[in-house]
Write a structure and sequence with these properties.
- By secondary structure, the protein is of the alpha+beta class.
- The protein has 2 domains: 12-140, Nuclear Transport Factor 2, Chain: A, CATH 3.10.450; 153-267, Nuclear Transport Factor 2, Chain: A.
- The chain has 5 helices and 13 strands.
- The protein has helices spanning 20-34, 36-43, 58-64, 153-174, 200-207, and strands at 44-51, 55-57, 70-73, 77-80, 86-97, 100-114, 117-127, 183-190, 197-198, 215-223, 229-237, 245-255, 258-267.
- Strands 1, 2, 3, 4, 5, 6 and 7 form a 7-stranded mixed sheet that branches.
- A hairpin with a 5-residue loop joins strand 10 (215-223) and strand 11 (229-237).
- The longest helix has 22 residues, at 153-174.
- The termini are far apart.
- 44% of the residues are buried.
């Protein structure tokens, strides 16, 4: 039986409370008040990462790239560790400038709780022209349950680094569908140009559009104290020393002694 069960919730109101979704809503409201750059600088962790499309130091990037446009978003997915120290949010976004919508898509954000406050550890998004899919986003929020710690933080990080190395090797050898061997039943897949897919079957259809032979360079591993939730991310590196770099981010859930993929996002080099 899975250590984390899926909550069949009727509406996104179930994501209220003091979790990362509530912090993300407050963040969005703040962006509407003071602008996107100022809001990001208020909530970004000191070592927070943004993707442009390769990972960059978030605070430095925001300070160097002022933006007068309006970025609006709404979290409709929340995953939270049993320890309450690591969380993930996802939902639709729109970007408006001069009262005209210039872009839309979906975002995924990783949050860590520091001294009682949620801080943005990583944030990225994909653009797509298709209308938002009719999904019950709240239906795949995950229950927060008490969990016995199964392994140390060091051991969990070592497991994840090994899992990432094996997945990267399998993906470059066998193609993008290799990630389905590690997929959680609630796998959320985000790719540019397409609305998000939910579940391994939908992911298979999206991944079938083509493989990406870029090497996934691991830069960061975050593991919850409860050992049940983790996030990993880094750069997508093509062949050649001067090849442009993209970015990737994955969310993992540990169950039955193995790490399963809850979310996978790839941003090819532009």
């Amino acid at each position: 039986m899975r250590a984390l069960t899926v909550l069949l919730l009727a509406s996104v109101s179930a994501l209220e409370g003091d979790g990362p979704a509530a912090a993300d809503r407050a963040f969005a409201a703040r962006a509407a008040e003071v602008g996107v750059n100022a809001a990001f600088l208020e909530v970004l962790a000191e070592d927070g990462t943004l993707f442009r499309p390769a990972p960059v130091a978030g605070r430095a990037w925001m300070e160097a790239h002022p933006d007068e446009g309006l970025l609006a978003w709404e979290p409709r997915v929340e995953w939270r560790s049993a320890a309450g120290d690591l969380g993930v949010t996802c939902g639709p976004w729109t970007y408006t400038q001069d009262e005209r919508v210039q872009g839309a898509g979906h975002f995924l954000s990783v949050w860590t709780r520091v001294e009682g406050a949620w801080r943005l550890a990583a944030d990225l998004g994909v653009s797509h022209a298709e209308p938002e899919p009719a999904l019950e986003y709240a239906a795949f929020a995950l229950a927060v349950e008490a969990a016995a710690r199964e392994l140390s933080s060091e051991a969990a990080e070592a497991e994840l680094r090994e899992a990432e190395a094996l997945l990267d090797a399998d993906t470059r050898e066998a193609g993008a569908l290799a990630l389905l061997d590690r997929a959680h039943d609630s796998l959320l897949l985000l790719r540019p140009g397409a609305p998000p897919s939910r579940g391994p079957e939908a992911a298979e259809a999206l991944l079938g559009r083509g493989a990406d032979a870029s090497r996934a360079e691991l830069e960061r591993v975050l593991v919850a104290r409860s050992g049940d939730l983790a996030a990993t991310w880094g750069a997508l590196v093509g062949a050649g020393a001067d090849a442009p770099r993209g970015g990737w981010l994955r969310v993992w859930h540990r169950e039955d002694g193995a790490w399963r993929l809850l979310a996978d996002v790839r941003l090819p080099a532009q």
